Give the backbone structure.
Amino acid sequence: MGAYRDFQGVSLVDYLRDALLGVADIETFPSPERLATISTRVKWPPNEHPLFIIDDTGGSAERGIFVTSDALYVLSDGRRCPLSFIQAPPQYPGGDEVPGFLMTPQGPFPVPAMSTPHRRGSMRDALTAVSRYNQGDRELSLQSFARQGPISELVVSHLLPYRQIRGAYRVSEIKLAAARRTYLMGIDHLGGERLLALIDPNLAEVGGETGLVFTDRRVLVNSGARADLPYSAITHAHHVSGMLSNELVITAWDRPVAVTLGGMVESLQGLMGFFFALQQVPPSQRYQEPTASNVEPRATVLARNALLSAAKKNLVSEDTAADLRVRLDLVEQTLRFGRGGREGWFQSPLGREDLRFALSILFGQAQNGGSDGRMETLDYVFRGRAQAHLPGAGVAWMLMPMSAPYQVLRAHVIDFLGGSGFSLSGIRGQTSTPIAATVMQLNYRLAEIEQDILYRRILFGPEVDPARLTEIAPHAIQQRAHELSLA
């Protein structure tokens, strides 16, 4: 095979297989039929073995990149770049929506811009993996993942062999996006909790309606029951099957939680093995400290650059800059891993006043409000689905359950270190019902609002009223960011 090997015996093919398997939009080891299509666009010698393609079309391979064991080919024009030349990830000085380049020993090698954010991320991940290998990295991600701690080791040993179970290091962006809309919610981002694995019976790159989330400290259940089970509290797990049921019963705090398996029954043996092995670990040791940050700046790059400039000019104190970095991290984690939670509260990177305004963008102005000093209560009156045409509030109210329209949506808001906490409940008569599903559906839109407000806060300071802050025109934002960037 053309791909060279180092003294440890890990070839580039081995390394890329481990790093890229399961990444969205990357077709590893294309089939003969696909290779026939690709060969109409580019030609490669027989000693080069096809590794993967990122096709930026509907399957015609007219745009994108094709990678063999020795080279990268640009599908649109057939240009070739030896893989050994790639020493750094691609650069896009004009933004990632326009073509960029790879810096090589022979100068810049132009690379195309992919047409969707998912494909752009996939190409960045793929070429970054190539550059890591060329810089000497030989550690396979699975080995690295297992060494993070005892829970990761159990996940690797018992769960990851099953195709329905995906380790966090190789869950595609499409799968994460689908999971955020259905069952991925409640990870304590501010407390340092890390996602380790997802179990989703739907093998396609879409979200199933149910799933299990394994973190470094607990399992979050959303299948037949919704439960939050710390590993330290779990004492038993067994399988119950019958004519009308097929469940995994997990006992925690001496209370059984019945997890409906459905399609997840395919992974039953792995689940049983995981929980059996977990019970052999003393409860106090069923936890692992995060070994590294899971924050990769993507959506907050501009805000981080502005904060860095403001800090260099002493416009913000070191403590304020550190606090804002925590909040920017929370934005990234929320956009990628779902709305965070702690002790029954959802997490927001905004201060209480800004969060109140963000909620008003979604639900309209609060009709009633009050505070006991620690907790603020906000009521949004639901006047029926006809209200769904209201600007801003439309999406939010349309997500209210059709079968149980609430008279009032009530939000409680408290202060958190590094942000705020909030809860949402539907009020009908004297009955209050938590509506976590609505939070999941609103999560991405709310996170986008939070991201925008936080960026504007960094640029214009804490004194500006949030309503005025969000009215600042885009050109004024660009001008202020440029002023901060000047030395």
Summary: The mean pLDDT is 85. The chain has three domains: 12-137, 143-285, 301-485. The domain at 143-285 is CATH 2.30.29 (PH-domain like).
